[in-house]
Specification:
Elements (H helix, E strand, L loop, with lengths): L8 E4 L8 E2 L16 H10 L7 E3 L12 H11 L4 E6 L6 H8 L3 E7 L5 H7 E2 L3 H15 L7 E8 L7 H8 L5 E6 L26 E4 L4 E3 L10 E4 L5 H5 L2 H11 L7 H7 L4
Parallel strand pairs: 1-3, 1-9, 3-4, 4-5, 5-7, 7-8
Antiparallel strand pairs: 2-6, 9-10, 10-11
């Protein structure tokens, strides 16, 4: 595989706060690391990305980014220091009111992903516990309406995490959203490395491993992990509180992991063993 000297995309766990308690998400199981990444650590990561050819910055891994107490400061800092980099926001839409919408559009947010896991109120609220279907849909459609007068292109996509309880709504879900957003994603529940709250569903593993080759993931305590499934830090490749992200990315361990995954070898790493052992 081609070996990049720096990742193309960086995902940063700015916060673990989230108003939802989704049935497949391990967020409420996470303990032992900061609820919010320290600001000084966040800015250190951004600073280390300057001039490295970064393409995307995602201030999200295991939490609702709109819940971050410093989200606007973070967007401003990324935009000023990495002006060429596209910011991606992943949100459940619950906190996406008019003021938050305007805040997102002030900065280099180039794509917004809305996680909406049902077409009907009953099924949605079964999956996204703690959220109110009508409010979320109104918020998302309000954001989309505001984009009509926004001078720059902002990509939009909705994502349904498919489980046995919402698969019957996929057709209606796709039909409802396909004319409103750029992309409709239907992704089988991946089981979060065998330790999520639901097992992997259908052919989730056949999607392949697209997390390792060009992306890196940094948890709120600075731990660098291989992919978004490693919410618990099963395979920590370094810590940016101690070393630079570039040196961690180019370490022999990280290079070996990327090479092994590209060749379909998963047995050498705990998070990969958990992932491929998911019950399908």
């Amino acid at each position: 595989m081609s070996s990049l000297s720096f990742p193309r995309t960086v995902l940063v766990e700015t916060t673990l706060r989230c108003p939802a308690d989704c049935i497949f998400c391990p967020n409420k199981k996470i303990t032992g690391r900061p609820v919010d990444m320290p600001w000084e650590l966040f800015t250190k990561i951004v600073d280390e990305c300057r001039g490295k050819g970064l393409v995307g910055f995602h201030p999200f891994i295991n939490g609702e980014p709109l819940s971050s107490p410093y989200l606007e400061d973070a967007l401003d800092y990324i935009s000023r220091n990495l002006p060429e980099v596209a910011i991606h926001i992943y949100t459940n839409g619950y906190l996406l009111d008019e003021s938050t919408t305007e805040m997102l559009l002030r900065y280099n947010v180039r794509e917004v992903h809305f996680s909406i896991d049902g077409f009907s109120k009953q099924v949605y609220e079964q999956h996204r516990r703690g959220l109110v279907y009508e409010g979320v849909i109104d918020n998302v459609r309000g954001f989309l309406a505001r984009l009509e007068s926004h001078p720059e292109k902002v990509g939009t996509r909705v994502v349904l995490t498919m489980t046995p309880d919402n698969e019957d709504e996929v057709t209606d879900f796709r039909r409802f959203w396909k004319e409103q957003v750029d992309i409709v994603d239907i992704l089988p529940c991946d089981g979060r490395g065998g330790e999520g709250r639901l097992p992997a569903f259908e052919n989730a593993q056949k999607m392949g491993c697209f997390q390792v080759a060009e992306c890196t993931y940094i948890l709120s305590d600075g731990s660098v992990v291989a992919c978004c499934k490693d919410w618990a830090g099963y395979t920590v490749l370094g810590n940016v509180t101690k070393d630079s992200l570039e040196s961690i990315w180019n370490s022999s361990e990280y290079r070996n992991l990327r090479d092994d995954v590209s060749r379909g070898i998963f047995t050498n790493y705990e998070v990969c063993r958990r992932c491929v052992s998911d019950s399908l």
